[in-house]
Every structure is written in C-alpha cells, then in structure tokens.
Amino acid sequence: MTRAKFIFINVFYCLFLIWLGGFIIFQQYIRKHQEDRVSKTDAIIVLTGGQNRIVEAVRLYNEGLADMLFISGVGQNVDIKTLEKQNNTMIVRDLHQVYLGKEATNTFQNAIEVSEFIRRHNLKSIRLVTSYYHMPRSVVQILRFNPDLTIIEHYVYSKNVSKRWWKRPKSFFLIASEYHKFVAVYIQNIFLKLIK
C-alpha cells in the first residue's frame, strides 16, 4: 500500500467516524428531546410542509398557549378558511390574531418570513411547531436572525415517517438527508459568525 493511499484511507475513516458520531447525536436529540407542552409564548409559529403541523398548531392556539398564530409558507391564494378545510380543523379563537405567510417555499425562506413577523410584532418568545426531524435546522435558521429569541420546540410526528426510522429505508434516507442539511446550515452559521 502506498503512503498516499494509506493517508487517504485514514482520512476517510476519520471523516466517517465524525459523520457517524454527529448522526448518532442528531438522532438521539430528535428522538429523546423533552418537550414543554404547557408554557405560554408570545406566538405560535408553524412551518408548513409536513403532515399534522397545522392541525397541531391550531390545537395549541385554541388551547390558549399563545395569543397569536403565524403560519409560514402557505400558498399565495390560500386563506384561513381554505387551510381549515384542507386540514380538517377549526380555529375557535380570534381569527384576527391568525396570520399567514405566503412567500416562503423552503426552510431558509421560512426563517426570513418568521423573522419579519417577529420584528413586526416585537416578539420575545415563540412556540415553534414543525416535524421532529426538521426542528434542529429550523431552530438554527431562525436563531441566526433572532439570537435573543426564546424558542419552545414543539415536535410533530407523522405516520409517513417511522419512529423506528433505521428499519425503514425511506425514513432512514429522510432523517439522513435532514442531518446533512442541518450540518450544512450549522457550518454556514459558524462561518458567518467568524467573518463578521
């Protein structure tokens, strides 16, 4: 074995072990994170894109866990009544305190849209509602623009993503993909802080 090949193999194994260690920490975090399901916040914010997210956010709003509800990433022609019908849910509290964000089409744009809403309403705390595997990246993105914000993470689970994801190829690749996206965003944030 040549010296170059030996170095390459060792570097590869080191990088793989780093990747594996990070992946294990990531999946442990999303599987065993303890949620606060009772504290009130200034607003409930839900990111569209996953099953049951809107239904859960509406339930929390109806229970009075915040006085405002912001739904980020709805379609341009969607209104509250359409959302209620599509998700088989009903908002029973003040509809004037329910806001729709219609510009975001991905997580980064969600973070910008949410941040504009936070600044506009001078929010200090939010309950963020999104899929459990999507939460770490969403939190990092939002905190990039709002470093002093308090975020209560509220996980949503879907029947389409197995809780035993390591036994289901489709669920495994979804979790692995989300881990890679999270790492990319995390590294990007570190880089942006270094160049400031």
Let me know the CATH homologous superfamily.
Answer: HUPs
In order across it, which strands form the biggest sheet?
Answer: 3-2-1-4-5
- CATH arch. level architecture: 3-Layer(aba) Sandwich
Question: Radius of gyration from the CA trace?
Answer: 19 Å
Beta-strand percent range: 5-15%
User: Count of helices?
Assistant: 6
Question: Oligomeric status of the shown chains?
Answer: single chain
Low-confidence stretches: none
* Name of the top-level CATH class: Alpha Beta
- Largest sheet: number of strands, sense, barrel closure: 5 strands, parallel
Structural class: alpha/beta
Secondary structure blueprint with pairings:
Layout (H helix, E strand, L loop, with lengths): L2 H30 L10 E5 L5 H10 L6 E4 L7 H8 L10 E4 L5 H15 L3 E7 L3 H11 L4 E7 L12 H27 L1
Can you tell me about this structure?
The chain has 196 residues and is α/β, with parallel strands linked by helices. The protein has one domain: 3-Layer(aba) Sandwich (Rossmann fold), CATH 3.40.50. It is built from six helices and five strands, in the order αβαβαβαβαβα. The chain has helices at residues 3-32, 53-62, 80-87, 107-121, 135-145, 169-195, and strands spanning 43-47, 69-72, 98-101, 125-131, 150-156. The radius of gyration is 19 Å and the shape is elongated. The termini are far apart.
